[in-house]
């Protein structure tokens, strides 16, 4: 009990701190300089209709790279963390077969989900959405597959190749930006094209494609790794 | 004499054997490890005790010796060594009634510093050993005064299994004081007798002991069955 | 004054002191005997003893240090004589005191002790070592009040030179340190009981307990040397106290009288008291004498 | 110039590709990874050479080609270049180290490894707050992964706790960042600094959140249980990275971000750092698990760095150099230690004795330990020096105190550990499995410490005169260690002689006197080394190190040079002392007292520097404020070396258990270093002018009581060398007393004692040491009667003790005479009385020494024992010659000394007559005449006795009177054990070791405190999370409140 | 309701979520519940982030028919927090995945999810 009171006291202190930080002030009535710059200059500089995408892919491209990297990192860690045990594993646990309906539906829906995911990241610079969202959608397709058929083995090699190539391409595009345009990850080494069309915003769509593929592959890898480990006899 | 009755005493070889037999453990030959790890032999009877025989010390000639003998006679330092019942007669000598100091007689606690020894009564074989040792450790010239009939002929102990009968078989005696026991007055008389002998140059017991060393030793070894000490105690 | 004269006069002084020491020993023994209603030794007994000891026909040796022990011991006594001015006002009997002051006297004493201790040690006799350890233990605390008194004196007279200390006490009995600085004198005199090692402070010898302590193995001429030294030492230590506290001596008779009286103090105490145990003795000197010494220092602060 | 962004690009690109490369096999993959790391290292090195050394202006990289704040920018300035180099270098070395692990665990581990360094590089370089967050997360996550390289349960739990902790920390950081964005409208750090957010309360809290998150990443005590578990649970190779790379980068981040608070919370961070430094090191003293101990040390060191960053306002332009010095020592040493832990694979620090199977690894271990504690010639030494100086100059004495306390606590466990490694039994332990890929990084770290130490010299002011040639020579000797001892001995003696030839002519007065002791004494004691056979591994470098230190003490002009030399000497002597058979405890306590003393001295120098603004030793003379404190601190520092009462408990064991030829070195020579220090201090305090200072009164009493208690303790020792050791304490008490008198005569007495003590104590220790070597025992009651077997030793000891006792005519008396004159002249009667009393007590132990060893009964075992080695006798007899010369012609030595000290003590009451008589205010004394008289009398009496006893019969040892009986055994006849029982009964209570008890109490107190405090680390990840939150809340409430 | 804006509600809710998450982290002994706590904690932070970027009455920062490119600065909310939150979500996802993997292994070691049981390393 005393312990709980202490927890509450600590949390109360924390709450005080957070509310002090926020100050309960109302929202700004206008954008700050940085945001205003994105809003005003973004279309010319990056050429992406989705300003968030221009921020993500170009202005703060390095963050995005890092973010992809973290997923990649998590996937790698889970890969070797969970694998080592699996290498000398006993026979997989017998799992109940899933229902016919689920299996069939999954077979039908999964390609559609993949297609939708690809749509989302290809159009990422124009509409809400982007590489991450697309990648996540693709991974959700994979989850569906796994749920429908738990004994199915995912081919990790394919995932790995996709991961590697897309990641490396991302870096290459960034370096092209450095070599051919203003700086690392500058999308302007390709023509910006017409604002608001699919082939606009320079390298942004390309990058988004790679991000989408990579995120999709990484999430799939994580999920399948976790799922496979779960299948182990515990 | 009692000690001559047993023929086995005459056998030198037997004496050697008894000596080995009665040697205490700590006086037996032993092997010890030196600090650097070597084994070395220690033979206490040889290594720790001088093996040399006593030597005759000739007196000076003429008036010098006379003067020195006078000095010796006026400064008789007696070893405080009580043997038999007579030792109770010695302490009164330093009391006001008898006051031996006025005759230049004094007690010394150590044989090294003493010039006279009083065998005060019967001498058991065990004590004889100690008496001989102490006598031999005194410096020359040295004098022996024997009290009571026990030292003369064994007295009431003449047929005892463990006392000696005649002291002068074992060490040269300068003065016998008769009585059983002699009173302190008799001792004082004895001292005067001793002084006279010294002044006359007749108290050469130490030289006599040295001259007839083998005879004395043979006698001693005959009576002391557990002879386990060097022949002469320096 | 050339060296030879000085050496000869020093030897003369030494000779006088030796004989006076022997005589004084005899007189004291005699006095002690009279206390016990005895006749006691004859006055010439010490000389006879010496002759006898030196004339013993043989001697043994436990080793080089055993032989050097008495040498060191005598060196201590003779050394004291060497550096001690004997007669105030007499250039001849200041000996070699020009080479060093009171400090050297304080330290050369230890030479004798060390020699005795070493020689006795090599003798290999356990009682010797026990006696030495007792004697040394006692000396440590004996010297403490004495040193404090000496410091008090040095400050009082602003010198460490014995001759000057004596000079400062000339001109009447009231100029003696005994009267000008009674506390320091008291401390020093109590220490003196220990320095002379008479009963109750003769525990290094303890005749009935550890036969006679350090010199157990000594005999013949070794013992002769030790006895010679004892005679010298008694007198010369008394001379030291005489010089420091009792106005020194301007002539031999005065020296003889004063040393006799000083030495008598310790004999007097010795006759009255039995022997201390070692820890009693050590602690005793840390009580009254030490307090007196401290008071003496406080007085000069 | 290669764009810094290529560091990121290459690292990430290769990391992404590794999965593909792995198809070609693990070796190519590992090779490519190392190549990538090498490339990253090269780039950062190249920038370092460009920015740091060539002095180019910093380089900015704008990603996507837009100006900040609109895009993320990276900066490659001086500090960034330095830190990225550090990070990448350790990455490369660590990669090599972990090579085999990577092989075993597969390509994913390599990816994770590489990404860790990408993350850290960006963290260092980025100027964008959110970017910092992202790449910090990369680094943290990578560490969470790398922890699992060690596939053990403990690694998994540690990783989980770390994950929980970093989860909370990153959350706090993120909240802070977003609120900063809210109030500042930018994520560009420069903008945020310019915006001065602290004006608004919310902004202030936001900044607080960011900074406290960074602080938490630095593992502040006590909210750092997770970090310790990480250090313990992780693979050593990974722990090295966490400690070396991650923590370094974090310190830099803190430095980078601190300005956003506008200098408000510097003190707070300094306090947190200090708390961490002291607290963590306190807990370390109870730790026995090697990696966890290293963890405590790491945390502590980082705390110190945080403190340095927080105290930037004190340090001014020296900040970078100080921080670099501390950081780089920590970085190399800690990495090296963690790597070593991996090589050994021994959990318990007791088992590190295993290192002795590979002496070179042991040498590296020692290097790391000394570097961590801050000994010269490593960078941390200079950094710590400068840190203390600058802090003192800014009157930050509280900080100085905290730093020194923490450092001392750190020394406590590090030297315990080193002692274990050096001394505990290693026979039972398995052999070390040498894998070159693991050894190479360790060696490089060790070499790096030396090189950087040399390069770091300019950090501190007043280093100009430090001579590194002796050190280089010592390293050479270290590599010549395979030669036989005799050859090395010759080389070392030649080196010493040459060194003496170089420096001695340039020295004057006081320094020259001590140079005689240090250099000539050194050569003489080294002669005894010829008695040893075999190789004597490790002896010569240590001995030479000590003598190099002593020599440099003599030539030191500035405080730093002095301190440098002092610490060198300490290292050398520590190794020498701990070489003794049972020296583990004694070496340890020696080191602790030395370190403690050195820190006090350091503080004192700091005060002096602050008070005078000078780096010269002469600063002490010119202190304008707190002069008394400086003097007291420095004096106490020196008194640890002279083993003054209260600080002496290390000495008896250290000197007694040391090797036979080391004891004279440390006792006769090393102790004089403390005396030398005191002499210099007193001179600089003004000589005669300062004699009224109350310090000297205290020191006088202290010296007197030291002499009394130590001599009394010596009396009751059974161990010959311990007896001599106590005697040394006592003699040093005399010396302290004499110098504290602060008059001409007093100082003359002091120098006489110093020289004499050097001579006779060297003689005694040499001879006793030689005997111990022959008899293999220290105990006097096991000896006896050796005069028959070792006559030359006996004579030497006899002369030694006569001199020591101060009996005329030998030289010791000169000291006594001067003492009396000086003491009475000064008016110190009581102290003088105490000194005299202890002088007589000295007889007791001297007699015990000579009697128990040489006289009495020879033992069975020793009947064939030989005279001690001539190599012990030669130096001893050389010194006896010295004593004889001093005794016969004291004026030859005392007059020049008198002249030398006249400049400090002009009013001298002492006059010297033509015939050699010294006339003081009170007394007079002519050493030559006394000598002639005493010798004359002695010879005459001897001749007389020989005449009388020429025919004395030589008898054997049992031919003693024994009340009609015979002795049984020599053992029962030799009176030695507890020989002064009666004395003990009388006043033995004065020698009760209550000071040891006091120190024991203090030590126990600290240990118990550590035991109690560390219970908060209950091993529960949840509790650690609570700690983090509580820590944040508490610090928040304290700094901002409500 | 004039004075309370959407962002205030969001941020206060976010902060509450943060506190709830922390409560779970420090008081729930089940590791899975702790991980849920972390998710809540992260989510709370994300909500706060989005709330901070909100500007009253503005629209999403996508320049389509609804938003005039010229007038963009006055018509859209701040795009930056949205970009940041995206990154933060992904990071949170990675960490959550990692935690789950850890939980799995920890459970395999000791057959329990009680966090108290994993105190092999301490002091």
Q: Which key features would you list for this structure?
A:
heteropentamer; A: 234 residues; mainly alpha; 8 helices; 0% strand; globular; C: 301 residues; 12 helices
Describe the structure.
The complex is a heteropentamer of chains A (234), B (234), C (301), D (1042) and E (123). Chain A is mainly α. Chain A has a domain at 100-229. Chain A has 8 helices and no strands. Chain A is globular and about 60 Å long. Chain B is α/β, with parallel strands linked by helices and 234 residues long. Chain B is 35% helix and 12% strand. Chain B has helices at 12-22, 44-47, 62-74, 125-137, 148-153, 184-199, 205-211, 213-223; strands spanning 30-33, 39-42, 76-79, 105-108, 116-120, 143-147, 175-177. Chain B has a 5-stranded parallel β-sheet. Chain B has a two-stranded antiparallel sheet with strand order 1-2. In chain B, strand 1 (30-33) and strand 2 (39-42) form a beta hairpin. In chain B, helix 3 (62-74) runs antiparallel to helix 6 (184-199). Chain C has 301 residues and is mainly α. Chain C has one domain (3-300). In chain C, 70% of the residues lie in helices and 1% in strands. Chain C has helices at 3-35, 45-55, 64-83, 102-123, 126-157, 162-168, 177-180, 182-196, 220-245, 252-272, 278-285, 288-300, and one strand at 60-61. Chain C is globular and about 55 Å long. Chain E has 123 residues and is mainly α. Chain E has a single domain (6-58, 73-117), classed as Helix Hairpins, CATH 1.10.287.3510. Chain E is built from 4 helices and no strands. In chain E, helix 1 (6-27) runs antiparallel to helix 2 (31-53) and helix 2 runs antiparallel to helix 4 (79-110). The chains are: A mainly alpha (234), B alpha/beta (234), C mainly alpha (301), D mainly alpha (1042), E mainly alpha (123). Chains in contact: A-D, A-E, B-C, B-D, C-D, D-E. At the C-D interface, strand 1, helix 3, helix 4, helix 5 and helix 9 of C face helix 32, helix 33, helix 34, strand 5 and helix 37 of D.
SSE arrangement:
The complex is a heteropentamer of chains A (about 230), B (about 230), C (about 300), D (about 1050) and E (about 120).
Chain A: H1 2-22, H2 33-45, H3 51-59, H4 61-87, H5 100-122, H6 131-148, H7 156-180, H8 204-231
Helix pairs in contact in A: 3-4, 4-8, 5-6, 5-8, 6-8, 7-8
Chain C: H1 3-35, H2 45-55, E1 60-61, H3 64-83, H4 102-123, H5 126-157, H6 162-168, H7 177-180, H8 182-196, H9 220-245, H10 252-272, H11 278-285, H12 288-300
Helix pairs in contact in C: 1-9, 1-10, 2-9, 3-4, 3-9, 4-5, 5-8, 5-11, 5-12, 8-9, 8-12, 9-10
Chain E: H1 6-27, H2 31-53, H3 72-75, H4 79-110
Helix pairs in contact in E: 1-2, 2-4
Briefly, what is this?
The complex is a heteropentamer of chains A (234), B (234), C (301), D (1042) and E (123). Chain C has 301 residues and is mostly helical. Chain C is built from twelve helices and one strand.
Order of helices and strands of chain B: HEEHHEEEHEHEHHH
Radius of gyration of chain E: 20 Å
Largest sheet of chain B: 5 strands, parallel
Strand content of chain E: under 5%
- CATH topology of chain E: the name is Helix Hairpins
CATH class categorisation of the domain at 62-223 in chain B? Alpha Beta
Strand content of chain B: 5-15%
Which CATH class of chain E applies here?
Mainly Alpha
Shape of chain E: elongated
Mean pLDDT of chain E: 85
Give the low-pLDDT segments of chain B. Answer: 1-9
Helix/strand-derived category of chain B reads alpha/beta
Low-confidence stretches of chain E: none
Structural class of chain E: mainly alpha
Helical region count of chain E? 4
> Which topology of the domain at 62-223 in chain B does CATH recognise?
Rossmann fold
Query: How big is the Rg of chain B?
Result: 20 Å
| Number of discrete helical segments of chain B | 8
**Greatest interface and its residue counts?**
C-D, 83 and 79 residues
Number of DSSP strand runs of chain B: 7
């Amino acid at each position: 009990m005393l312990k709980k009171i202490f927890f509450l006291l600590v949390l109360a202190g924390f709450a005080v701190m957070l509310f002090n930080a926020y100050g309960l002030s109302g929202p700004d009535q206008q954008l700050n300089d940085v945001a205003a710059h994105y809003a005003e200059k973004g279309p010319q500089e990056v050429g992406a209709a989705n300003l968030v995408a221009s921020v993500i892919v170009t202005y703060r491209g390095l963050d995005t790279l890092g973010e992809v990297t973290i997923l990649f990192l998590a996937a790698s860690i889970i890969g070797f963390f969970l694998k080592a045990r699996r290498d000398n594993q006993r026979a997989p646990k017998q799992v109940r077969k899933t229902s016919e309906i689920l299996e069939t539906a999954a077979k039908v829906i999964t390609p559609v989900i993949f297609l939708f995911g690809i749509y989302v990241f290809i159009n990422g610079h124009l509409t809400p959405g982007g590489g991450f969202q697309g990648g996540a959608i693709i991974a959700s397709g994979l989850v569906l597959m796994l749920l429908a058929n738990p004994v199915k083995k995912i081919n990790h090699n394919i995932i790995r190749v996709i991961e590697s190539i897309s990641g490396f391409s991302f870096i290459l595009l960034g370096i092209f930006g450095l070599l051919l345009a203003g700086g690392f990850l500058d999308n302007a080494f390709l023509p910006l094209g017409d604002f608001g069309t699919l082939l606009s915003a320079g390298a942004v769509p390309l990058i988004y494609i790679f991000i989408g593929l990579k995120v999709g592959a990484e999430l799939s890898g994580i999920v399948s790794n976790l799922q496979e480990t779960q299948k182990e006899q515990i | 004499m009692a000690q001559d009755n047993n023929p086995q005493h005459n056998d030198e070889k037997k004496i050697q054997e008894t000596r080995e037999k009665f040697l205490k453990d700590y006086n037996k030959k032993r092997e010890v490890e030196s600090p650097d790890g070597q084994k070395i032999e220690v033979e206490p009877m040889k290594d720790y005790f001088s093996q040399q025989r006593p030597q005759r010390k000739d007196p000076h000639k003429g008036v010098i010796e006379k003067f020195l003998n006078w000095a010796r006679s006026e400064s008789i330092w007696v070893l405080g060594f009580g043997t038999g019942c007579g030792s109770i007669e010695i302490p009164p000598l330093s009391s006001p009634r008898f006051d031996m100091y006025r005759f230049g007689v004094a007690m010394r606690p150590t044989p090294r510093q003493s010039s006279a020894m009083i065998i005060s009564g019967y001498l058991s074989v065990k004590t004889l050993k100690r008496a001989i040792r102490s006598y031999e450790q005194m410096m020359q010239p040295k004098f022996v005064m024997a009290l009571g009939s026990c030292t003369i002929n064994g007295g009431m102990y003449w047929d005892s299994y463990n006392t000696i009968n005649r002291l002068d078989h074992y060490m040269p005696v300068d003065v016998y004081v008769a009585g059983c026991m002699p009173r302190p007055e008799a001792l004082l008389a004895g001292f005067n007798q001793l002084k006279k002998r010294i002044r006359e140059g007749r108290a050469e017991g130490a030289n006599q002991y040295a001259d007839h060393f083998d005879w004395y030793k043979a006698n001693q070894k005959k009576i002391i069955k557990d002879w386990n000490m060097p022949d002469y105690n320096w | 004054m050339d060296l030879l004269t000085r050496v000869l006069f020093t030897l003369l002084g030494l000779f006088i002191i030796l004989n006076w020491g022997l005589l004084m020993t005899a007189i004291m023994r005699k006095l002690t005997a009279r206390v016990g209603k005895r006749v006691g030794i004859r006055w010439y007994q010490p000389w006879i003893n010496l002759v006898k000891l030196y004339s013993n026909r043989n001697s043994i040796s436990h080793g080089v240090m055993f032989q050097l022990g008495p040498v060191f011991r005598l060196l201590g006594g003779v050394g004291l004589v060497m550096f001690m001015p004997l007669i105030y006002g007499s250039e001849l009997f200041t000996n070699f005191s020009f080479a060093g002051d009171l400090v050297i006297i304080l330290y050369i004493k230890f030479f004798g002790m060390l020699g005795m201790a070493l020689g006795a040690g090599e003798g290999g006799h356990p009682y010797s070592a026990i006696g030495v350890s007792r004697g040394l233990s006692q000396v440590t605390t004996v010297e403490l009040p004495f040193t404090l008194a000496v410091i008090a004196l040095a400050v009082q007279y602003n010198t460490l030179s014995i001759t000057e200390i004596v000079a400062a006490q000339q001109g009447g009995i009231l100029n003696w340190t005994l009267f000008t600085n009674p506390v320091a004198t008291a401390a020093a005199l109590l220490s003196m009981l220990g320095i002379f090692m008479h009963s109750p402070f003769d525990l290094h010898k303890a005749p009935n307990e550890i036969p006679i302590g350090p010199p157990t193995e000594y005999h013949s001429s070794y013992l002769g040397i030790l006895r010679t030294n004892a005679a010298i030492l008694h007198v010369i230590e008394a001379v030291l106290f005489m010089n420091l506290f009792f106005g020194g001596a301007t002539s031999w008779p005065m020296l003889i009288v004063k040393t006799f009286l000083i030495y008598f103090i310790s004999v007097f105490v010795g006759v009255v008291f039995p022997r201390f145990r070692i820890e009693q003795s050590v602690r005793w000197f840390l009580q009254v004498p030490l307090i007196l010494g401290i008071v003496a220092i406080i007085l000069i602060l | 110039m290669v764009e810094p962004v290529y560091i990121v690009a290459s690292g990430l690109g290769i990391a992404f590709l590794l999965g593909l490369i792995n198809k070609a096999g693990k070796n190519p993959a590992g090779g490519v990874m190392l190549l990538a790391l090498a490339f990253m290292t090269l780039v950062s090195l190249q920038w370092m050479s460009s920015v740091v050394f060539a002095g180019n202006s910093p380089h900015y990289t704008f990603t996507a080609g837009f100006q900040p704040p609109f895009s993320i920018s990276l900066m490659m300035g001086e500090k960034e270049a330095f830190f990225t180099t550090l990070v990448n270098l350790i990455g490369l070395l660590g990669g090599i180290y972990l090579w085999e692990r990577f092989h075993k665990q597969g390509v994913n581990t390599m990816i994770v490894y590489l990404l860790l360094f990408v993350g850290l590089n960006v963290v260092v370089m980025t100027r964008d707050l959110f970017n910092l967050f992202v790449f910090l997360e990369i680094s943290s996550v990578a560490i969470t992964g790398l922890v699992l390289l060690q596939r053990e349960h403990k690694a998994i739990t540690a990783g989980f706790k770390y994950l929980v902790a970093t989860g909370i920390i990153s959350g706090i950081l993120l909240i802070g960042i977003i609120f900063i964005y809210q109030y500042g409208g930018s994520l560009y750090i420069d903008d945020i600094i310019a915006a001065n957010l602290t004006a608004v309360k919310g902004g202030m809290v936001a900044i607080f959140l960011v900074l406290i998150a960074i602080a938490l990443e630095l593992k502040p005590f006590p909210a750092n249980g997770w970090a310790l578990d990480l250090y313990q649970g992780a693979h050593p190779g990974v722990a090295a990275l966490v400690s070396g790379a991650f923590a370094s980068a974090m310190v830099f981040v803190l430095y980078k971000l601190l300005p956003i608070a506008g200098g408000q919370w510097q003190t707070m961070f300094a306090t947190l750092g200090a708390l961490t430094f002291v607290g963590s090191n306190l807990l370390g003293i109870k730790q026995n698990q090697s990696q966890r101990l290293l963890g405590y040390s790491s945390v502590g060191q980082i705390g110190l760095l945080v403190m340095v960053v927080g105290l930037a306002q004190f340090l001014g332009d020296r900040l970078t150099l100080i921080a670099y010095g501390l950081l780089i020592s920590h970085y190399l040493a800690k990495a090296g230690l963690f790597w070593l832990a991996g090589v050994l694979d021994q959990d318990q620090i007791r088992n590190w004795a295993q290192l002795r199977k590979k002496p070179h690894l042991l040498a590296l271990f020692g290097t790391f330990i000394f570097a961590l504690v801050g000994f010269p010639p490593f960078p941390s030494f200079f950094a710590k020096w400068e840190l203390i100086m600058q802090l003192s100059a800014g009157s930050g004495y509280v900080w100085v105190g905290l730093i020194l306390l923490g450092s001392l606590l750190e020394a406590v466990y590090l030297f315990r550990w080193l002692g274990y490694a050096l001394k505990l039994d290693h026979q039972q332990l398995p052999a070390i499995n040498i894998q070159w890929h693991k050894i190479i990084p360790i060696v490089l770290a060790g070499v790096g410490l030396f090189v950087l130490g040399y390069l770091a010299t300019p950090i501190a002011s007043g280093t100009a005169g430090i001579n590194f040639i002796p050190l280089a020579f010592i390293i050479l000797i270290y590599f010549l260690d395979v030669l036989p001892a005799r050859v090395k001995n010759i080389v070392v003696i030649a080196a010493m002689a040459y060194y003496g030839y170089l420096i001695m002519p340039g020295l004057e007065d006081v320094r020259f006197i001590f140079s005689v002791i240090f250099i000539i004494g050194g050569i003489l004691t080294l002669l005894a080394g010829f008695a040893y056979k075999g190789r004597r591994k490790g002896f010569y470098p240590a001995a030479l190190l000590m003598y190099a230190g002593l020599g440099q003490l003599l030539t030191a002009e500035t405080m730093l040079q002095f301190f440098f030399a002092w610490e060198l000497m300490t290292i050398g002597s520590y190794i020498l002392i701990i070489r003794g058979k049972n020296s583990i405890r004694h070496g340890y306590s020696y080191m602790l007292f030395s370190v403690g003393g050195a820190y006090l001295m350091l503080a004192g120098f700091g005060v002096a520097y602050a008070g005078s603004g000078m780096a010269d030793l002469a600063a002490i003379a010119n202190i304008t404020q707190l002069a008394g404190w400086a003097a007291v601190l420095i004096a106490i520092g020196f008194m640890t070396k002279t083993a003054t009462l209260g600080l002496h408990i290390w000495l008896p064991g250290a000197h007694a258990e040391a090797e036979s030829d080391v004891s004279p070195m440390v006792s006769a020579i090393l102790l004089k270093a403390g005396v030398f220090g005191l002499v210099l201090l007193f001179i600089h305090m003004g000589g005669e002018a300062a004699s009224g200072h109350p310090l000297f009164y205290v020191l006088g009493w202290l010296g007197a009581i030291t002499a009394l208690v130590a001599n009394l303790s010596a009396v009751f020792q059974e161990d010959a060398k311990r007896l001599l050791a106590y005697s040394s304490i006592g003699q040093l008490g005399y010396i302290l007393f004499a110098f504290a008198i602060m008059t001409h005569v007093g100082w003359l007495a002091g120098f006489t004692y110093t020289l004499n003590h050097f001579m006779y104590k060297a003689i005694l220790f040499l001879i006793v040491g030689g005997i111990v070597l022959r008899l293999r025992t220290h105990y006097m009651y096991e000896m006896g009667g050796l005069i028959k077997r070792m006559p030359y030793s006996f004579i030497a000891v006899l002369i030694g003790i006569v001199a020591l006792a101060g009996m005329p005519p030998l030289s010791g008396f000169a000291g006594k005479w001067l003492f009396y004159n000086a003491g009475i002249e000064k008016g110190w009667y009581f102290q003088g009385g105490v000194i005299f009393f202890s002088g007589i007590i000295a007889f007791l132990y001297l007699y015990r020494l000579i009697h128990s060893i040489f006289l009495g009964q020879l033992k069975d075992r020793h009947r064939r024992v030989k005279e001690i080695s001539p190599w012990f006798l030669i130096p001893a007899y050389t010194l006896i010659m010295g004593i004889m010369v001093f005794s016969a012609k004291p004026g030859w030595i005392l007059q020049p000394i008198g002249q030398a000290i006249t400049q400090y003590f002009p009013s001298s009451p002492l006059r010297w007559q033509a015939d050699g008589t010294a006339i003081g205010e009170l007394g007079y004394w002519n050493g030559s005449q006394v000598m002639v008289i005493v010798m004359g009398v002695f010879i005459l009496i001897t001749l007389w006795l020989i005449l009388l006893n020429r025919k004395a019969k030589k008898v054997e040892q049992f031919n003693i009177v024994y009340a009609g009986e015979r002795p049984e055994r020599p053992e029962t006849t030799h009176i030695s054990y507890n020989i002064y029982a009666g004395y003990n009964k009388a006043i033995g209570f004065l020698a009760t070791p209550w000071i040891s008890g006091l120190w024991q109490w203090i030590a126990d107190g600290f240990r118990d405190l550590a035991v109690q405090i560390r219970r908060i680390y209950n091993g529960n990840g949840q509790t650690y999370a609570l700690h983090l939150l509580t820590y944040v809340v508490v610090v928040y409430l304290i700094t901002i409140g409500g | 309701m004039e004075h309370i804006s959407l962002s205030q509600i969001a941020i206060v809710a976010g902060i509450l979520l943060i506190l709830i998450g922390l409560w779970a982290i420090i008081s729930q002994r089940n590791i899975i519940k702790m991980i849920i706590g972390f998710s809540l904690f992260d989510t709370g932070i994300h909500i706060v982030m989005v709330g901070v970027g909100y500007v009253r009455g503005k629209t999403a920062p996508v320049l389509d028919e609804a938003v005039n490119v010229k007038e963009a600065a006055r018509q859209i909310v701040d795009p930056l927090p949205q970009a940041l939150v995206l990154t933060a979500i992904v990071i949170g996802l990675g960490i959550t995945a990692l935690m789950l993997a850890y939980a799995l292994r920890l459970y395999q070691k000791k057959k329990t999810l009680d966090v108290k049981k994993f105190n092999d390393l301490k002091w």
